[in-house]
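Bug report

Summary: C-alpha cells for protein disulfide-isomerase differ between web form and batch submission.
Environment: batch mode, default settings.
Steps: 1) Submit the sequence below via batch. 2) Compare with the web form result.

Sequence submitted:
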Amino acid sequence: MEFCKEQDVNAYPAIKLFHQPRDGEAGEIGTERYRGKRTVNAIKSFVTKWELPVMSYVPAANLAYFKSINDIVVVAYVRKDQVNLVETFGAVAKRHWKDFVFGYVTEAQAVDAEGLAMPALALYKNTDGENKVLNGPFKETDVETLLEGASSMLIGDFNERTMDQYMRGKLSGYIFVSNENEASAVRKELTPVVRKLEKYLAFGIADAVEYAPMARSFGLSKDVFPALVVHAPHNDNVFTYKQGRKIVAPVVDDMLNTILHSKAQSGQIFGENAPEMGASNPKGHDEL
C-alpha cells in the first residue's frame, strides 16, 4: 500500500510502466500510466510502443514480422537517398508514436514484394485488415491525413459507452465473442461486407461473458462463440446466424441483404449451410 501511494496509485487494478529516457535523451527513469482496455492485446500494444524506437529502420527480412507487431503499423517505403522523406516521416512519428508503430524500409526487394513503388506509405491495420496506401512523395500533412481515423473500426466495440449508437434506427449487428482472437478474425472476415452496407447498419463486437444476459435475451446458447445476431430496433425483429457455424462473409452478405430487402421473418435463422466451426475453435476469456 505504501509503495502504491508513493507511485500515486489510488485505484486498482492499475498498470504503470517504468521506462528509460526515450531515444538517448538524458533524464531519470520515467513512468507512464496505462489507461487503455484491460486485454492482453491492448496491454501488449502499449508495451510494444515503448520498447521500440519512435521510428524503426526495418530490413527487408524483418518486414513481414514488423507489419504484424502491433494493431496498427505505419511503414514508409523510401530510397536511401530520400533523406528528406525519412525526416518528414520521423517528425510525424514523434507526435504519434504512442498511438502507432512507425518504421521505414529502403530495400527495393521489400517494396517489390508489397507491389508498391518508392516512395510510398502503407498503413497496416491488423485489427480488421483495412489497410491503406499512399503512393508518391509525401509531406507531413499527407502522413497526418493517412493516420486520421486509423484507430476507429467499422465494426466497433459494443460497451456501455457506445451502446446508444447501436440502438437507433439502423439495423444493429451484435457479434458475441469469448476472446480477442475471435474478435479479430470476425472483423477481418466481415469488414468488407459491412463497409458496403454501412449506411443501413451498425455492427459491434460484444464480450460474450460481460453481455451474456443480452446474448441469452436474443435466444443464443452459452459457450458457442463467436455468435451473430441482427436486431431491428424500430420493430424489435431479431435474426440469428446459426450457432456452431463459421461466420463467413458470403453468408452474412446474403443474410443482411435478405433482411434489408424485407424478405426475412423475425426469428429466422441464417447460415444453415455455412461450414461448421470445428473442435479447434478457440475458447476462453482473455480480459484481465
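Above is the batch result. After comparison, the two runs are identical; trailing whitespace caused the diff. The longest helix spans residues 180-196. DSSP finds nine helices and 13 strands in the chain.
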